[in-house]
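Researcher: We plan to redesign the surface later, but first we want a full-length starting point. Tokens attached.
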């Protein structure tokens, strides 16, 4: 590296590194090598990754350097995109051609895709360097990244605490300097909650904004793919790169993709920010409440109008989410039976098909996945379908209407991302229903299909607190605008995790 000897490239943002690349201060190989060195330093403690290919990563970095050199010779260095040469980690449910994609399950432990997911292909086209695959809760079902078949991921801010889930490996990698940016998935908060716990930015786009082609399905009507980054501008860059229509995904929206970076510095003067009164009742820790309220006062001081709104049906959102999500999970997991797809156990040669399927699913799935499959199967069973699933679908429509109505009174809705900061491993509730309450603020955005972002807004108990901003469908630009204002007023600028802390 030709910069300061004290600098760590692994702790810088995409746009900072891009400026250095274009000016010739550093190369992609130098950036990537520093990230790989950081992985060597902290990965044994953090456990953010499940699969890496060091040599392939360095070859991609060299290819990026060659592309930049050609652009410089042609006098077109200004045309080099922000992601060229940038080390990125993908969640392990996003297909990568020639690199293992396991969903952190024994069921897919040895699966190597022959194709790239749409989001992977778009990142490669943008020049990003794929470092590897991030640890996750098995099949994205969890809130702690503890249900992975491989290992537990730890929070870089405090190794005795969870990183959140299910995209916990990706959030921890960005927080610890083990990647410059990452891609996660969000079905009920799986980008936003780990972003909140790890002190980084996480965006769940509008349903259909980013193609789901090549991403393992959990709940198909709720699943979204989005970025986890070090700051809001990086989030805007990543979203621009991965968003847009894809003919291979029938739910992919044709809406034009704006240049999100252009709205980052617009400020919040005149922006109407709605505070759902139902989100600020019991259940929120006092530290989280204080950090969120400080952030709201700062936004008001920056020129935003704070208005109270109501979401009268939101108390039903969590129940509706777990009925819809488990039903769809049960359906999606049915294809993994050891016959057509998935783990096939060794056994007596005379096993019939039913016994083989039972053994495959019994051994191949972990407890949380089995629990959700059983719940979903019950919900969809004869006699229960209309009483549970049908009512949940009708309630979902009413909840979405509540959100749309509230967003006619304001430009965006603000709440905590999670009711607490990251909890200690020894504090984890034994009751799965208590754990599901971690999703109390996040599931609504998935049910309504609207975008939502989590931005660090302060500290409580020495741990990051995330502020969630929800907006109208396909209006990610307003979230990025408001998120940047939160970022500038949070006082989090110099705060770094104990294991992260890559100094500039």
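Model: Full-length starting sequence:
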């Amino acid at each position: 590296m030709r910069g300061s000897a004290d600098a760590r490239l692994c702790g810088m943002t995409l746009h900072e590194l891009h400026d250095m690349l274009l000016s010739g201060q550093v190369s992609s190989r130098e950036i990537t090598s520093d990230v790989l060195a950081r992985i060597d330093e902290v990965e044994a403690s953090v456990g953010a990754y499940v699969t890496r290919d060091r040599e392939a990563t360095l070859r991609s970095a060299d290819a990026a350097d060659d592309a930049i050199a050609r652009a410089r010779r042609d006098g077109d260095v200004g045309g080099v995109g922000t992601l060229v040469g940038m080390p990125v980690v993908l969640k392990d449910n996003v297909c990568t051609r020639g690199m293992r994609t396991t969903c952190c399950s024994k069921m897919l432990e040895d699966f190597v895709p022959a194709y790239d997911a749409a989001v992977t292909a778009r990142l490669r086209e943008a020049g990003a360097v794929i470092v590897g695959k991030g640890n996750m809760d098995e099949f994205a079902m969890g809130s702690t990244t503890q249900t992975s078949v491989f290992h537990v991921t730890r929070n870089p801010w405090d190794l005795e605490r969870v990183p959140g889930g299910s995209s916990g490996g990706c959030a921890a990698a960005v927080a610890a300097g083990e990647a410059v940016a990452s891609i996660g998935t969000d079905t009920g908060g799986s980008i936003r909650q780990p972003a909140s716990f790890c002190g980084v930015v996480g965006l769940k786009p509008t349903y259909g904004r980013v193609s789901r082609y090549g991403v393992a399905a959990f709940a198909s009507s709720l699943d979204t793919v989005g970025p986890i980054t070090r700051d809001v501008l990086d989030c805007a860059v990543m979203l621009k790169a991965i968003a847009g229509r894809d003919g291979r995904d029938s739910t992919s929206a044709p809406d034009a993709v704006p240049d999100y970076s252009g709205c980052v510095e617009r400020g919040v003067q005149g922006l109407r920010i709605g505070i759902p009164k139902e989100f600020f009742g019991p259940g929120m820790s006092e530290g989280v409440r204080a950090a969120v309220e400080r952030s709201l006062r700062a936004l008001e001081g920056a020129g935003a109008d704070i208005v109270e709104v109501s979401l009268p049906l939101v108390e039903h959102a969590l129940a509706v989410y777990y009925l819809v999500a488990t039903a769809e999970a049960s359906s999606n997991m049915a294809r993994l039976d050891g016959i057509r797809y998935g783990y096939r156990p060794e056994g007596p040669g005379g096993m019939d098909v039913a016994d083989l399927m039972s053994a495959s699913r019994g051994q191949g799935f972990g407890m949380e996945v089995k629990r959700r499959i059983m719940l979903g199967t019950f919900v969809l069973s004869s006699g229960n379908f209309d009483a549970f699933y049908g009512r949940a679908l009708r309630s979902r429509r009413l909840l979405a209407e509540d959100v749309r109505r509230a967003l006619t009174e304001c430009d965006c809705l603000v709440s905590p991302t999670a009711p607490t900061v990251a909890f200690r491993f020894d504090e984890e509730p034994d009751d799965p229903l208590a754990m599901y309450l971690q999703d109390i603020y996040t599931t609504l955005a998935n049910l309504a299909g609207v975008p939502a972002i989590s931005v660090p807004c302060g500290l409580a108990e020495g741990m990051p607190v995330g502020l969630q901003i929800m907006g109208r469908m396909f209006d990610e630009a307003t979230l990025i605008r408001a998120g940047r204002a939160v970022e500038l007023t949070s006082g989090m600028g110099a705060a770094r995790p104990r294991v992260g802390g890559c100094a500039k």
